[in-house]
Amino acid sequence: MLLAKIRGTLVSTQKEESLEGLKFYICEQLDIKGRPLGKYIVAADAVGAGVGEVILYVTGSCGRYTAFTKNRPCDATIMAIVDTLEVDGKAVYQKFEEDRP
User: Fold this and answer.
1) Which of 11, 47, 70, 82 to pair with 89, CA 20 to 30 A apart?
2) Pairing between strand 24-30 and 36-45?
3) What is the pLDDT of residues 29-40, one digit of tens each?
4) Residues with Cβ within 8 Å of residue 47, at least 6 apart in sequence
């Protein structure tokens, strides 16, 4: 699994019939400390994620191993929403701290 931050949405009204009902996001890849890498992917959402959230995603054939993406042509799928990212004993990302005013 890989880390990314959802930066935006992708809407496609004309698509393969098996992709109907899937939500797509533009995700910026992150390094292990949560820093942006400047590389982007489009991923299908299997967990109800939203713009601005840090997520875990998979690519390749693993992208089709969810109830939402089974037997669909998905190469990247959001599998989890990150609450806390801790590296070397230090929290480098806390979802709920970002939500506070």
Assistant:
1) 47
2) antiparallel
3) 999 999 999 999
4) 55, 78, 79, 80, 81
